[in-house]
Amino acid sequence: MTIEPFGARLRRAMDTRGPLCVGIDPHASLLTDWGLNDDIDGLERFTRTTVEALADRVAVLKPQSAFFERFGSRGIAVLEKAVEEARAAGALVLMDAKRGDIGSTMGAYAAAFLDPRSPLFSDAVTVSPYLGFGSLRPALDAAVVNGCGVFVLALTSNPEGAEVQRSTAANGKSLAQLMLDHMRAENEGAEPLGSVGAVVGATLGDAGVDLDINGPLLAPGIGAQGATPADLPGVFGTAVRNVVPSVSRGVLRHGPDVKGLRESAARFADEVRAAVTG
């Protein structure tokens, strides 16, 4: 049986459900805002409510692994259940783990998130390329075999990132552009969209790099971090149709009310659609 590539599944999800990714980020402060304790019960209730409210209607849900890992094995169990239930409801799950290592260790990370036999098997995972793009090969290969996606950090919105990402590589390009060139090569010939994506902050203004990688562009920073859907064309230019804006607190702050979560997500999706097609 042929496995449909992640890029094709993502394109369809964005076209039918709207171009939006909602993060599942159970910050201690958000748990408090929801009237929950910062403990495993609060984590479980927060996560279950978010998945039940959104998994049957948004294109992508993005759990931030760190906020589950901080509770140890019981937190990971909550994450495993969330991944399973979100995928069963039709959402694509992007595990925000930002893993990066070499050799067999990178292979183990790939097995954790991109192997169907793993309880954390997700549709895609975020990775860091700054041990060299070639260090990501185990994840890239696993993604191809299992119809998954890999989102590679390129230009992040945190100020500290510039000292690495904007530095000049040996070929005279910025390091970020070098990574984007590698992503373009991985996606060559893919239709309707490649499965290797880039993470590019929506708060950057003019990104100053070539973002036409024939793959998805995950754009954190919409909402609480200050960017709006109207900013997207200015940052992403001709590649804007492939942008997957990521909103976390901008949606989650409307919980625990299910109606509030759904209305906020729908509103962001509509605003993004208008911005990228207008």
UniProtKB/TrEMBL annotation:
Keywords for this protein: Decarboxylase, Lyase, Pyrimidine biosynthesis
Protein source organism: Streptomyces sannanensis
Active-site annotation: K98
Domain Orotidine 5'-phosphate decarboxylase: 19-264
Pathway: Pyrimidine metabolism; UMP biosynthesis via de novo pathway; UMP from orotate: step 2/2
NCBIfam families per UniProt: pyrF_sub2
Alphabetical list of SMART domains matching this protein: OMPdecase
Family: Belongs to the OMP decarboxylase family. Type 2 subfamily.
Gene, per the UniProt record: pyrF
Reaction equations catalysed: orotidine 5'-phosphate + H(+) = UMP + CO2
SUPFAM superfamilies reported for this sequence: Ribulose-phoshate binding barrel
Protein name per the record: Orotidine 5'-phosphate decarboxylase
Entry's EC annotation: 4.1.1.23
InterPro entries noted in UniProt: Aldolase_TIM, OMPdecase_AS, OMPdecase_type-2, OMPdeCOase_dom, RibuloseP-bd_barrel
